[in-house]
Amino acid sequence: NEAPLEIVAALLKIWLEAVEEKDRISIRTPRNIACEYNEALLEVMAASLQVCPDAVKEKSITDATPLHIACRYGDAPLEVVAALLEIWPDAAKEKDGYGIIPIHAACLNRACCREALLEVVAALLKILPDAAKEKNEDGNTPLHLACQFGAPLEVMFSLLQVWPDATKEKDLHGRTPLQKSCCRRVPWEVVAPLEDHHWKL
Fold first, then answer.
1. Which of 1, 30, 64, 192 could form a disulfide with 60 if both were Cys (CB 3.0 to 4.6 A apart)?
2. Which residue, among 81, 1, 3, has the nearest Cα to 35 in the 3D structure?
3. pLDDT, tens only, 139-182
């Protein structure tokens, strides 16, 4: 259930430091939980960041920042991602415990709607174009993950515009983005442009 902003505001008024309290299991603050579950997301983020702007640099038990979490789970509004990047632009290059930067996290997001995901990826590429070249600990570029997890075609094209040679990159198992697409039985309309782009290079 969604926690109305009035309740969040009232709780913060009574105990301001509550915004920094972490649970014992996953070491998450209310802000991390809001990012993950998308409950009153923008309002909770705004309220907690007003109290403690440095919280954007806070990391979870897996070293994920609030930006990682906002990109990875649910339909994170562009406003949330933009707000986090405005306070800490370098969050776009922060790696979690798996070598994942926020653009990787966005490409892993299956729950996000097409338009929202495209906006988030565009925002991340605008602030850090070289993010398209970053690999996680398994050697996956954002394009690898976009292909593997069935990201919208527009997301793949936005990654290819920044770095066309991404089609030739191989992960630690020697697989290209095209091979990732084929392994996951991605629709032909997604595979065809990758194949075409690869042979043009």
1. 64
2. 81
3. 999 999 998 888 888 998 999 999 999 989 999 999 998 888 76
Q: Show the 3-state SS of the chain.
A: CCCCHHHHHHHHHHCHHHHHCCCCCCCCCHHHHHHHHCCCHHHHHHHHHHHCHHHHHCCCCCCCCHHHHHHHCCCCCHHHHHHHHHHCHHHHHCCCCCCCCHHHHHHCCCCCCHHHHHHHHHHHHHHCHHHHHCCCCCCCCHHHHHHHCCCCHHHHHHHHHHCHHHHHCCCCCCCCHHHHHHHCCCCHHHHHHHHHHHHHC
Average pLDDT over residues 59-77: 83
Q: How far apart are CA 191 and CA 146, in angstroms?
A: 12
Q: At what angle do helices 41-51 and 78-87 cross, to 10 degrees?
A: 20
Question: Structure pTM?
Answer: 0.75
**79: Cβ contacts below 8 Å, ≥ 6 apart:** 42
* Sign of the four-CA dihedral 109, 111, 113, 116: negative
What local confidence, expressed as pLDDT, does residue 188 receive? 57
Residue 155: what pLDDT? Answer: 92
Distance, in Å, from the CA atom of 161 to the CA atom of 14, rounded to the nearest integer, reads: 49
Name the band, by pLDDT with cuts 50, 70 and 90, for residue 36.
Answer: low
